[in-house]
Structure formats: structure tokens, C-alpha cells
Amino acid sequence: MKTLLTVLFVGLQFALWAQATPSNTNSSSSIEHLTAATFKQKIFDYSKSKTWNYKGKLPAIIDFYADWCRPCKMIAPHLEAIQKDYKGKLHVYKVNTDKEQELAQVFGIQSIPAVLFIPVSGQPQMLIGAHPKEEYEKQIKTVLKVSK
Predict the structure, then answer these.
(1) Is 69 a catalytic residue?
(2) Catalytic site residue 72?
(3) The whole model's pTM is what?
(4) Which one is catalytic: 34, 43, 61, 72?
């Protein structure tokens, strides 16, 4: 009986610890995670308008990902490096498609990773799949018109 109580107590402690631990596997990430509410505030309020109108003052990149997605984990270091390399020239955000299903649906996300490049003016463009860092930098230069 005592052993059973000990096992239950340890199990309960582990469950509480796991619940308190952030689900993002890269908790050291300095990239801001957007919710539907913060997306509407900072990027575009799709509930009020169907015509794209970016609210930001700097171009942006949004990584639509999921914690369980291996290709998403492969590109995460690229986006971290891009955020540092282009600091002050563009914003990098992440959207967890498992937690923010409404956003994933609004953008028709069916495959991840999906990276949205948003110029200050003009239409955003989506890049699907994992790519080398050079491909993301090419999109930054051509779509966002930003250089290092």
C-alpha cells in the first residue's frame, strides 16, 4: 500500500511538472508566438475585413508550425538566426497550428511548416515545407525587399 501511494505521489508530481513546463520544445526561443487575438492586433484583423491590410511598420515572417513536426524543428534554427541577422529590419513570429486552429484555417494551412512572408505593402506569399536558410533569405530579399 505504501509503495502504491509513493508511485501515485511521484506520478502526480511528474504530471504537475509536465503541465507547468512550456509545450514549445524550444523554450529559449525569443521569437514571439502569436494567438488569434495578437495576430488581429499586430498583423491583420481578418474578422473585420476580407481585404489584406498589414498593420505592421516592418515586414514580417510568420512560421506556422506544430511541436510534433520534425521539419518544423529543422527550420527553427534558421528562423532564430534570421531574427538576429535582420534585427530591426523585420519581425519573425510563430503560430502553433495545434493551438491556433482558427489562424491555420484562415490561411488554409494544410501542410507544415508553412512560412508566410509579409511585405509592408503588397500581398503576402507562403513558402511550404522545410528549406535551407538560403531559401528563406532569398524570399526576404525578393518578397520583403530587405537586405542584411
Answers:
(1) yes
(2) yes
(3) 0.80
(4) 72
